Amino acid sequence: MREKWVDAALAAVRAAGERIRQGIGATKSVRFKGPIDLVTETDEAVEAALRESLGRILPEADFYGEESASGALPQQTCWIVDPVDGTTNYAHGLQHVAVSVALWQGGRPVFGVVYLPVLDELFWAVAGGGAYLGQTRITVSATGRLEHSLVATGFPYTVAEQVQAHIQVLGRVLPRCQGIRRLGSAATDLAYVACGRFEGFYEAGLKPWDVAAGWLLVEEAGGRVTDAAGAPFCFEAPWIVATNGRVHAELVSLVAGGGA
């Protein structure tokens, strides 16, 4: 039997996600944090709601959210929160928008949830307890060949400064897989690897709130998450590579610059 706080946290994320679902078709107030990096009033409202609700569930846990974090990730137990992963999608009325929440403890995620409120899909995992979509246990794809694999990727907000490097990686991966998808939400991409919709995902320049929950989902679903050298993933790694495990070595090689 899972701990009561898990159900409370899932309910809190669902409730926060309802704000996104209601606002997806509405006129939005948008401001820019960078040339192409934007934030809406919904990002801030959802983060504030989660800070309050998660704080009631585990008062001892710190809070590290995209819209309010300053400084390094706390070393103690903390919630890592991306209130609207895929804000650009949200601003344009696209459905791939996620709430990503992880509980970080002992240097690793021990609980993670990725909720897609427009699609009403709730992915969640507890360390050692498996990964789920709703109440159904999920596993990664059984596909063993990269040429039969669908791979997801994304590009950082600083892509204009590094465009050739990202094009080179794309140029290596694209001819070797079945296809590339770019959904605009890393949390969604990782959840889709966990449930077998994608065989792999790679991206550079992501933050802890982008990947903490999805990282746990993939591993609990039987997949593998590393950096581009195949070493254990950490938030300081420039790249993340997540796969079903069966195509991991080949995808890592391509991202790193080999396998031509």
Textual characterization of the structure:
The chain is of the alpha+beta class. It folds into two domains: 4-138, Fructose-1,6-Bisphosphatase, subunit A, domain 1 (Fructose-1,6-Bisphosphatase, Chain A, domain 1), CATH 3.30.540; 146-256, 3-Layer(aba) Sandwich (D-Maltodextrin-Binding Protein, domain 2). Helix content is 32%, strand content 26%. The strands form three sheets. Strands 3-4-5-6-7-8-9 form a seven-stranded mixed β-sheet, sandwiched between helices. It has a five-stranded mixed β-sheet with strand order 11-10-12-14-13, sandwiched between helices. The chain has a two-stranded antiparallel ribbon with strand order 1-2. The mean pLDDT is 92.
Low-confidence stretches: none
Number of domains: 2
The CATH topology of the largest domain corresponds to Fructose-1,6-Bisphosphatase, Chain A, domain 1
Largest sheet: 7 strands, mixed
Assigned CATH architecture of the largest domain: 2-Layer Sandwich
Integer average pLDDT: 92
CATH class of the largest domain: Alpha Beta
Class based on secondary structure composition and strand pairing = alpha+beta
Q: List SSEs in N-to-C order.
A: HEEHEEHEEEEEEHEHEHEEH
In which order are the strands of the major sheet placed? 3-4-5-6-7-8-9
Total count of helical runs of at least 4 residues: 7
Task: Characterize this entry briefly.
This protein is of the alpha+beta class and 260 residues long.
Tag the structure with descriptive keywords.
single chain; 260 residues; alpha+beta; Fructose-1,6-Bisphosphatase, Chain A, domain 1; D-Maltodextrin-Binding Protein, domain 2; 2 domains; seven-stranded mixed beta sheet; five-stranded mixed beta sheet; 14 strands; 32% helix
